[in-house]
């Protein structure tokens, strides 16, 4: 390593025509080299760097615009969805209210129909009972009448003889004849 350094040192001591030579002082040459490199980079790289930054800026702005447009569309869709939700909730409430009122109406109709049916059945029951009572009364009357008639016929047949029978018939005929004359 010493040989390499010695060669640079020996180059610095060459007698040259003019001021051209190698400066081996590292502390003095580094800032100069850096300033030259930076100057060249700034002079030639300014356009490239500016184009890169402009492109990056345009992409960021484009992304922001797209994001804003997407955000606006999302907000619009959200509002539409909220409006549809409100409509559906209102319709659901209407169906619920209408359903409850329809149920109450049907309940009332069923209660009224059942009440009417019970009243009709009660009337039918009362009519049937009355009819059966009348039928039973008529049957009892017929039996009593038949028994009375049989008893009367039996009494008449046992008490009447032929002569009494003829006298009863003739008196009835004379009564009927007198009634006929009165009527004429």
Automatic annotation (TrEMBL):
Could you confirm whether the keyword Isomerase appears in this record? Answer: no
- Coiled-coil residue spans: 64-127
Mention one GO molecular function: proton-transporting ATP synthase activity, rotational mechanism
Membrane topology note: Single-pass membrane protein
As for subcellular location, the record says:
Membrane; Plastid, Chloroplast thylakoid membrane
TM regions (residue ranges): 32-49
Q: Does the keyword Transferase apply?
A: no
Sorted alphabetically, the keyword list is:
ATP synthesis, CF(0), Chloroplast, Coiled coil, Hydrogen ion transport, Ion transport, Membrane, Plastid, Thylakoid, Transmembrane, Transmembrane helix, Transport
What cellular component terms from Gene Ontology apply here? chloroplast thylakoid membrane; proton-transporting ATP synthase complex
- Family matches, as PANTHER family: ATP SYNTHASE SUBUNIT B, CHLOROPLASTIC
**What is the annotated role of this protein in its UniProt record?**
Component of the F(0) channel, it forms part of the peripheral stalk, linking F(1) to F(0).
- Remaining remarks: In plastids the F-type ATPase is also known as CF(1)CF(0).
Q: Which family does it belong to?
A: Belongs to the ATPase B chain family.
The entry's protein name is: ATP synthase subunit b, chloroplastic
Q: Which gene encodes it?
A: atpF
